[in-house]
Amino acid sequence: MATQVIPVRAIRTAAPAAPPSPARRRRERKRNLWIYAFLLPTFILYGMYTLYPIVASYWYSLVEWNGFSADQRFVGLDNYEAVLADPLFWSSVRVTLLFMLIVAPLRVFGAFALAILLNSPRLPFSSFFRTAYFLPVVTTTAIVGVVMRFILDPASGPVASVLQLFGLGPVDLLGSSSTALLTAGVIYVWKFFGITMIYWLAALQTIPKDLYEAARIDGAGALKLFRHITLPLLIPFLLIISVLTIEDCFHAFDLMQSMTAGGPFFSTEIIEIYIYRWAFAATIPQLGFASAAAVLFGIIVLVVVIAQVWATMVSRRLRARA
Amino acid sequence: MSRTALSRRHFMGGVGLTGMAGLLAACGGESPPPGPGGGGGDAGALRWWDHLGGLQDLHDEWAVTQGEALGVTIEHTYNEPGKATEALQLANQSNQLPDVYSPVIGLPLPALVEAGWVQAMTISDDVIARLPEGTFVEGLSMLDGVIYGLPAFTDKQYIACTWYNAEIAEEVGFEPPKSYDDFLTALRAIAEHGEYAPMTIALGATGRMREQIDDLAQAGGFPGYMGLRFDTGAYEYHHDAYVNAIELYKEISENGWLLPGTNGFQIPDARGRWAAGGIGFHIDGPYSPGAVRSLNADMLPNMAVAGMLTPDGEDIVATKGARGGDWVIGGTSELAEIASQFVETFTQDDYQTALATGMDQPPLNLDVVADADVIEPYAWLVEDFRARVFRAPQPQVRNVDVTQVQARQAPVAPELGNVIQGYLGGELTDLRAELTKLSDAYSAALDEAISGATGEGANVSRADWEFPDWQRGVDYTY
């Protein structure tokens, strides 16, 4: 069944509305007042804990400051020059991008496959499975990191015990630079898989059931239903979910810090840990330098946000056409 | 629905209004001013923070007993080491520094005084008289004769102590190692025995690895500390003594003698495994027994120590600088007088004895260790420190302007601990080249800091780091 989309602009121009009466205007003003009253706490908290730190970090990136004293020396763009000249900054950029390339496809496509399965009306206990897969999302990330270190302990962890049953020697998955990032990535995917799964489940609910019924009447099997109905109608969501997930993958500080702290030898040092190391873990904190790195990181994320906005626009267009 | 009934919208509106009122009440209005001791806690109470994990029970008790004696409530708070610096930063920025605290801040004393982190303390002549000579050092714990900090522990200690499990030693049959070869022989014997893991260290804790290798390199003949030569004032991490010490760890790692997982171990990980038994060796500081006791007291009787390794089993010669203040009085404290009296209590024999009994870092007064309830290896180690650790020259003691350079000197990354981890993990292959790069990086950072400090009027040069008259095995005097 096709849905006719009537452009909003057409409705507006078709019947010009009469000017609202003073009483209606008063009611609207009162209603709007309530809206702003409810938004006010969010504005205040957002301003205090998000906007102010962002603006402050731009200022700090232009000064040399250790955070211990009030003495801030203005150094212009020196901090940016120093960050860009630091091979470990570029190493952290590389690790961050590599991490994103490992985990984003696993989250997007793995969660998609699982959502398809969990959305099937024939699957028994689907609510139980949905809850089970979502459970890691609501578990404290730092606790997950600590527990995973015990689970993967090559000397006495359960993974080591299983490997020993098969005669395999101890494998230090988090302690070896060749496996640490991949291992952390897999744990990250397990931890945050549920969010992407919920996105997909929500997207699947938007497909009208009568489309499937009509196709079945026409003799379409499960594969054809998936190929010709599910997939085309989910493509607009794929764009948004991918961009949201990619953006999310830039924020893995708590899990990575609790599991590897960026080691061994910087092999899991994502940009957030790089910033933290200079801002808080250095003997004499370098808050200006760290802020410059944070601003550069913000620019990278901004590029992704722009891509997100673009993807949303494209997706709306595609949905409108569908 | 009747107009008097509560609609959902009105209910939500009411809840929102109440919430708003609550929020505004919390944000605005007048709040009571912080007590004389700073923000939080009972008004008039003396607030005391420290980061010494192994001494928390002692300090909780000390706060109660000394509070009663001094007639003040003492609120003792454990400032967890991992967050201690950040906690102090936040406290300082919100004008809530504790009255007495352990200053885990990387700034030299003059910078702390100038920034208002600390204030002068009054230590009576009687108290000074019972402390070891040279406890208070200009530029480190006092400025122009005014005392700003009290050292809590002795500077006579090294931290690369070779702790071993005496039960395993007896079963496997190895002697306490003195030289690198002795050590490798003992580790091989444990590995061949097959029942125990030969060794673990906190390889993931790069700061701790740096300290251990700094100590081993010094005992191995490096004429300086932390890569900086005392005689020439030049950085020389690529000295043979450093290379040999790191190669020793490399050989141990490549032979598979480290407990699996050691590569990523932080200090509690390594120490926890060692305290559980079943591991032959653990290189750790003198504070190991105190930490082990809190983890597994049954392990204490099995702990033995073989001092510090030297390449060919030579006598240990360690050189350490004087300590700065381990206890300071908060710059904003209004209880400075009573805080000073409280700080003085840390010099009492009963506190020093209790400190020794805690088997953390050895106390300021080493004489009390003999009468304290400590394990025999700890007492032996303290005697070894007394005989083998000498006073190092420190540029900031000779020229206080050096502290302006130290306050500006940017950290270097990768640092020595990272290089060790990278070399043992195989990410770095040419050790000497990496150490040479490290020396160059530190040297450049020092030069840049000197240049910045002199630009702001400090009278300082690289010559301030040179002590050509320094002699190994002799306490340095100025």
UniProtKB/TrEMBL annotation, chain B:
The keyword Signal applies. The keyword Oxidoreductase does not apply. InterPro entries: SBP (IPR006059), TAT_signal (IPR006311). It holds the Pfam family SBP_bac_8. Keywords: Signal, Transport. PROSITE patterns: PROKAR_LIPOPROTEIN, TAT. Belongs to the bacterial solute-binding protein 1 family. This is Carbohydrate ABC transporter substrate-binding protein. It comes from Occultella gossypii.
